[in-house]
Amino acid sequence: MDYRDKLVLAPMVRVGTLPLRLLAAEYGADITYGEEIIDHKLLKCERRINDILGCTDIVEKGTESVVFRTCPEERNRVVFQMGTSDAVRALKAAQLVCKDVAAVDINMGCPMSFSISGGMGAALLNKPELIHDILTTLKRNLNTPVTCKIRLLKSSRDTVELARRIEKTGVSALAVHGRRVADRPRDPAKWIEIADVVAALSIPVIANGDVFEFEDFDRVKVATGASSVMVARGALWNASIFSPNGKVPWEDVKRKYLRKSIFWDNDIKSTKQTLKEMIMHYSCLEFPEGKAVIKSETVGDLAQLYGEEHYYKDVKLKQQLSDGSR
What whole-number distance in Å separates Cα of residue 160 and Cα of residue 190? Predict the structure, then answer.
């Protein structure tokens, strides 16, 4: 995978599932990261081909719970992000998904307590030897490109030193979130510190932080010198941020997202969470639409709420016919 001059959808927990990734790509995203999935969970899963939907599912054994769903359409751009704190476990988990994705990424930036308490995410930032062990193990044993995503350390010098050590493992690219672990989303991203990393490395660096309009992609590139730029919240609020023609109306984006969720039988919790995030940015969950989304128990309920009943029925009928003809 080429990581230069790319617009990138960031990994986002609970919302970065197949519908949002495909929606972002439709609007212009070149690379789309899936939500972080923990290696322990992957080791309880098996890979299944879903002939009804035309996709590949990573499913928890003994259940029908889909942990990760992907399709051929995104094969050359989807990045599977994993949470891990052990090289052997990471490799075993990566081997389950590596044939269906464009790259495998190790999360080294998540500040959430569940991640840090397990020695994953941002907890790895202070363990350079473990980082080296995980990344070199994956690089040595996978034919799939390996990348990782970090946050800024206490000083720019520390960040650059870690980035150089990561580069020596042979990873294909490094994503840098321009905030420290203690920073909040409202704190401005420190683009100048990402620029220090870019200047020190020869591999592509993906800059992440404070992209809310299409024009921000260029602003970040100019400010940091990064090869590519990654966006999280801006894309969650309106995935058409990737379009050089300007954002499309919020209502249209929501309906398009819902249609993709219906078509790909997306998990209801993920679908509701994504819609709630969209609503909270432009409106309020206490208004009728927000309350109705919260009350919805099925994707069918959401289809009715957004006037997509006919589409929902057509898709379900086709899926039933496809299932019956097997």
Answer: 14
